[in-house]
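Protocol step 4 of 5: obtain the predicted structure for the target chain.
Materials: sequence only (see below). No template structures provided, no constraints applied. The aim of this step is simply to have a reference model before the mutagenesis design in step 5. Sequence pasted as it appears in the construct record:
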Amino acid sequence: MTEDSQKNKRRRSQFRPCIDLHQGQVKQIVGGTLDLSSLASSSTNGLKTNYVSSHPPSYYSTLYRTHNLTGGHIIKLGSLNDTAALDALSAWPGGMQLGGGVTEDNAVKWLEAGASKVIVTSWLFPEGKFDLGRLERLEGLIGRDKLVVDLSCRKKPIVEQSKSQESEWAVAMNGWRTLTDMEITKKNIEMISAHCSELLVHAADVEGLCQGIDEELVKCLGEWTTIPCTYAGGAKNISDLSLVDRLSNGKVDITFGSCLDIFGGDVEFSQLVKANLAHQE
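Step 4 output (structure tokens):
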């Protein structure tokens, strides 16, 4: 490759892997059916599960490590997942990010346990209202480079959308069931990005459905983000990698979950790995 072609070569979207944990097991869950607002951590009322793995979490982090799939994340969905998370982290120290229940009280612990970065969501929204002071304290505690903010969202009800012309989406917490007071807008993304090194955005309305990504959301994220951003939700085939690349101009990466054969789906993980390598080249 010539020097000029290297200068003109833009970044390409890449596949980032995931491990979702629920009650100590690796699972793929339909977004919005998980209720984390109750202290009854064993409750499964209304829960829709696509896949429950017979493998330990370390199986997946070892698989990702073998293929050098960096920048992936482990998400603890509710309590009873600490042991499982430690198992996943132990197989690839420094190789994956960790989210789910992260606060200023335990962030350092998870980094010391092997997380490359920690991902924070609900703790930033006490009673559903964004608290910039909490974000600034966490940034001061662990450093901006070790912090990822999860801005997973849902589309607002039509009546709420009509009140604001800025955004169709609001950040969601408590298993994506509770809408917060923060909208997904360019201004808010710029504000959050000043205090973290990456963004993670689940489109909860399509998460786990394998019926297609939220194209409009991906396009907006590509226009607004100035830091690395990973999108998750609705991926159904390998071509979604190129679709996200085109919509975001290579600024947004994508997670594939329920559609993969390693999680009971139809898309071959090995073929996605090959496509991802070819895509980068």
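Step 4 remarks: Residues 75 and 97 are 8 Å apart (CA to CA). The two ends are 11 Å apart (CA to CA).
Proceed to step 5.
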